Amino acid sequence: MSKITDGKKRFVKRSLSEANASVRIGKDGATPEVCKEIARHLDKNKMVKVKILTTGLKGDEAKAIATRCAEQTGSTVVEVRGHTFMLYKRRQK
Question: Which residues of the chain are modeled with pLDDT < 50?
Answer without folding.
Answer: none
